[in-house]
Design a protein that fits this description.
Blueprint lengths: L1 H12 L4 H10 L3 H29 L6
Length: 65
């Protein structure tokens, strides 16, 4: 959830970052750059979800699934 909020804030109020890259690329019709930003966000989401699940499995012993 925090990654989504971070990117959303970058859309609105930033001059750098992944969200700004996507937004400025969309405005200037640089579709290739826009999709690079979307792919980066997707990969960050997948990796962070995996890491958080592994941390939960390690630190929360009663939730071993």
């Amino acid at each position: 959830m925090s990654l989504i909020v971070l990117v959303g804030a970058e859309f609105v109020a930033s001059r750098s970052g992944i969200g700004y890259l996507i937004w400025s690329s969309w405005q200037t019709l640089l579709v290739e750059n826009m999709f690079v930003g979307i792919i980066i966000i997707t990969l960050l989401g997948i990796v962070s979800t995996f890491l958080l699940k592994e941390c939960e499995r390690f630190f929360v012993a009663w939730r071993r699934d």
